[in-house]
Amino acid sequence: MAKILVKPEVCIGCHLCEVWCAVAHSKSKNLIKAFMYEDPKPLPRVAVEEDLPLTFPLQCRHCDEPDCVSACISGALHKDPESGRVIHDKERCVGCYSCVLVCPYGNVFIDHENRKIVKCDLCAGLDMPYCVSNCPNEALIYVSDS
Ligand code: SF4
Ligand code: SF4
Q: In DSSP terms, which residues pair with 47 in a beta bridge?
């Protein structure tokens, strides 16, 4: 099962994980093109919470029994039994935001423009989640059984 673990003691609150998460979910996968030219702008699936001096990147836990999946009224969320990822199908999403209400970690984000949600997919299709590979202080660790 794949997950991202956080080392809050070395998080410096730079918010680069948010930036690179958005890039990972952009059309171009390019930092400049994504923010300068893409419309709509790509959205991050991670949020850095601050209670200074403590900062902490809030990540989807890809829960073993995900409340978001149970609450979804349209079958747009499911847990992949092989990878353990909790995956969102935007075509099936009806934008009821039940998942936003029930996620105990506040890790489902509203896509206001499309009236749907976005959530972490552990950068499906990429070798390594961009938040992990671009954290300058190695505060994020990717663990996977495979
Ligand atoms: S979105 Fe929230 S409830 Fe769903 S798997 Fe991630 S942490 Fe768990
Ligand atoms: S907002 Fe979309 S993914 Fe979330 S519970 Fe509603 S239909 Fe399911």
A: 58
Distance CA 31, CA 33 (A): 6
Contact 5, 137 (CB under 8 A): no
Q: Which residues contact 146 (CB under 8 A, 6 or more apart)?
A: 2, 83
Read off the pTM.
0.91
Q: Please list every protein residue whose CB sits less than 6 Å from any atom of ligand 1.
A: 60-63, 66-68, 86, 103, 105, 107-108, 119
- Average pLDDT score, the chain: 95
User: Tens of pLDDT along 107-144?
Assistant: 999 999 999 999 999 998 888 999 999 999 999 999 98
The binding-site residues of ligand 2, defined as CB within 6 angstroms of any ligand atom, are: 71-74, 76-77, 88, 93-99, 117
